[in-house]
């Protein structure tokens, strides 16, 4: 059974895709894919219970997908073309399909472990990507090819450990970094009380109360982060800012963060 949070994010995602029948068909297919759900659930089990990390399961992957959809829409609203559009090899809808797939599958490799999980995510996701695209685009090999390739670039590049080149993959990199509020750390904080490697990520995320993504004043995408304590700056400076700096979409993002009641700091 899906959690209330999973269903809530799914509803948010479908609303954001209301004007794209193909993307709606894609997310509905993936939301109802039992194998993908089992893989997301098991990845979360390994991440939280075995390794002591934050949520890397169905809620996180849906949230990254939702973040990426919103960011890509903000770019389109500002007249910014995706890499596929600039190269005149695909459409905005193709770019959106790739981002959706990458968002929902980028952490499947956590089923195996943390080290090199982005490469493992590609291996595990590839068969699902291929059968999904064959379902929604049975007669268009060209579109299936470019969407699959772009989704794989975004999955393998989401840790900023590998050079990526497309705006679409860069959006996934940033969208992943933006899922760091206290809700993501709630379960590991409750069940893992023995100090372990990676604890700073849980405590830092637990201090972050709100992340807003909307139109910027200077750039198409503005990210606003509010936190209860300065420990939250670790997550911003060591995780999110690192990902933005490595992203081909960096030039389109402005970032502000601060403790509640204090003036926010402008990072970008």
Describe this entry's structure for a reader:
- With about 270 residues, the chain is of the alpha+beta class.
- It has helices at about 5-15, 20-30, 35-50, 60-75, 85, 90-105, 115-135, 140-155, 165-175, 180-190, 200-205, 230-245; strands spanning about 210-215, 220-225, 255-260, 265.
- It has a 4-stranded mixed β-sheet with strand order 1-2-3-4.
- Strand 3 and strand 4 (about 265) form a beta hairpin.
User: How much helicity do the residues have?
Assistant: 55-70%
Strand order of the largest sheet: 1-2-3-4
Distance between the termini: 41 Å
Report the radius of gyration as a whole number of Å.
17 Å
Compile the SSE list and pairings:
Layout: H1 4-16, H2 21-31, H3 34-50, H4 58-77, H5 83-86, H6 92-105, H7 117-136, H8 141-156, H9 167-177, H10 182-191, H11 199-206, E1 208-215, E2 221-227, H12 232-246, E3 253-259, E4 265-266
Parallel strand pairs: 2-3
Antiparallel strand pairs: 1-2, 3-4
Helix pairs in contact: 1-4, 2-6, 4-6, 4-9, 6-8, 6-9, 7-8, 8-9, 9-12, 10-11, 11-12
Short description:
This protein has helices spanning 4-16, 21-31, 34-50, 58-77, 83-86, 92-105, 117-136, 141-156, 167-177, 182-191, 199-206, 232-246; strands spanning 208-215, 221-227, 253-259, 265-266.
Features:
268 residues, alpha+beta, 4-stranded mixed β-sheet, 12 helices, globular
